[in-house]
Here is the input.
Amino acid sequence: MPKAIRINKLGGPDVMRWEEVEVGKPGPGEVRVRHTAIGLNFIDVYDRTGLYPLDLPSGLGREAAGVVEAVGRKVRGLKRGDRVAYTYPVAGAYAEMRICPAERLVKVPAGITDEQAAAMMLKGLTAQYLLRQTYRVKRGDTGADSFSGGRRRFDRRAVGAASRCESDRCSRQLGEGEARQAQRLPSRHRRRTRAVAGRGQVADRWRRRARRLRFGRQGYVLRFARQPASTGMMVSFGNSSGPVPAIAPLELGRRGSLFLTRPSLFNYVATRTALERAARELFNVVKRGAVRIRIGQSYPLQDVATAHRDLEARRTTGSTILIP
Here is the structure.
């Protein structure tokens, strides 16, 4: 029987168990996928610890790549042997094989490896919706961003705000503009930055430093400044060190008539058309070399507890994949 990582209770990495699971045959509109590579993300930690509620017992993992093994009735456009990838709101990718809705799978094009596909679906599509849909970044915009598990660039100048020296060096190696540690982002960059992403400060420190474009330890916040520079958009899109604290509507006015949103990837790819369009754009920028998928480390799937510990301790760089 195939195996998968399962949890029966919430908690630390030790709650994950490597167990045999019954997969079965795909039903109407479903496909059975044999995973070849699985992506590791902070959302997996949120699921494991209960920050995002799960019905227990449960699997973990939101993205993977693999090969179609069986196709259910009423499935069009997919056949046995096709290479596919997905990111899916229902946890369960930490598995040797899985039944998936066919409409949530995209074909992996030639020139993209399974490892790259598994590493890019959730993080890459997150970057796509942030920079192409939530706020459409234009050529020439200056930006600093700190995406967990890898940096993304979509035809814009990038000023990297890395949380650690090692991440700073990785940004330089990728050739993505001028990288600086977040706590020492030079004032000349703060003045000219139109799009900034970082980890939002807690409580009054977070609010006080928002206008200074400096970021601390909690969550991810993307600030897009328009003209005049005091007016812009703030996008909270993650919780890597815990949820970002609440902000009063009046505070948005004090910060220059800001717009504030807390988007989710799965809202932006809720339809088949939206998913295909976003995935196609992501695959294209990777294939032409505009975006590099840097896989910093890989772990055997059964050693996922070690991977989670390293991720939470910020010992990982780039994207991380699990190999069944």
Notes: Confidence is low (pLDDT under 50) at residues 142-221, 223-231. The two ends are 14 Å apart (CA to CA).
